[in-house]
Amino acid sequence: MTMTAASPKTSLCAVAMTMLLLWATTHPAQGQGTVNFTFPSYGLANDTINLIQNADYLDSFFESLLQLKATGRGKVNIIHLGDSHIQADFITDVVRRNFQNDFGNAGRGLIVPGRVAGTNEPNNIRTGSTTTWKAKRCTYPEQPLPIGIGGITVSTEESDARISVKVDNTLNDYSFSSVTLFFQKDPSSYSFSVNDATGQELGITGPYEEGMANVSRIELNNCVDQVSIQAVKSNDDQKQATLFGIELENGNDGVLYHAIGVNGAKYKHYNAAVHFAKQTAALDPDLFIIALGTNESVEYPYLDPTLLYHIDKLVQSLREVNPETKFILVTPPDAFRRKVKPNPGVEKIRNQIIQYAVENGLAFWDFYKVAGGKHSAAKWRERGILRPDGIHFTKEGYEYQGNLLYEAFIKTYNHYVGLRHP
């Protein structure tokens, strides 16, 4: 058989068709790429105003989501930052699973070994250690340990100390094929070995030199659902292991939804965390969702006059190392003071957060208003989804909030897709 070379005209047609196909796969037709979302409702929210406000600011983020949905390629990283409403991961677990169901699952994302630190941790992970580690939360800035990306730090001087990490795949597959460690990384730091359930070493990082970035990534040959992270003394200079956080990915395209929450946290606590803002750059975030303000309102009638300063300092420090990242500020829900008294401080804090977002062109989700506004805490209590302390919610209450946040996202995203030029 004789092979015939393609004519120039044929080649041009082929190139044109290839370009057209490439354009078609990356430019969905109007209406394509939208998401249908429904969820069980308690009827406590104002659905008509459940939108992300100043949404035009988020166009580039929504375009990244649309391209991910259209092509199935790429990753979108979201960091959701908060306080005790976030530490247990009830809200963010729902938002994460919704995002990953609609746009792809790239893994569990950032975790902190809460049980090792002596505090609560999400239900979809379980950490443990036979060693007693020193621990610090960012809410105690006067204590000596440095704080990094997770808002909680654990540290030990015992060589051979181990932390076990196991993910729960009941509701979503969080098996992982890479482990990224955020830790104090200098000549005094122990090496870290990542081992499988039988103790076989899967990878090791270290020793280190002065000035290295406080992050190391270890790729595994296969997806696993548990590992142990072991401190290893490689030379006499190594004397401690100080861990700030652990990120778990599965190697797939999709959404990574990182939840960072610390009980009692305020804006000022993350500003006081020496490594926090800088280390977020390693996660390459497309979007920050900052949901703080409840603890600032608890002190009513005293309200910190420097709140706007601390909101701005946090946003600017995150923007400095993530210049293309977008921000959504979330207002706190109505709450009681001393379990039964109305707390006017919540609305005052809410107003300042919105003032900052509007004056600086950021997006915001006015959850205070969406949830019913002034005195709405009483209605949530009547439905049995607000705890007796009048501030925290039941698991069901938090899951409802997670679905409301995702609904606001999807309504706003679908609006973007519908108006987007093809």
UniProtKB/TrEMBL annotation:
Protein keywords: Signal
Signal peptide: 1-29
Alphabetized InterPro entries for the sequence: Ester_Hydrolysis_Enzymes, SGNH_hydro, SGNH_hydro_sf
SUPFAM superfamilies in the record: SGNH hydrolase
UniProt cross-references to Pfam families, sorted A to Z: Lipase_GDSL_2 (PF13472)
Record domain SGNH hydrolase-type esterase: where: 251-399
Domain of life: Bacteria
A GO MF term: hydrolase activity, acting on ester bonds
Protein name: SGNH hydrolase-type esterase domain-containing protein
Species assigned in the record: Chryseolinea soli
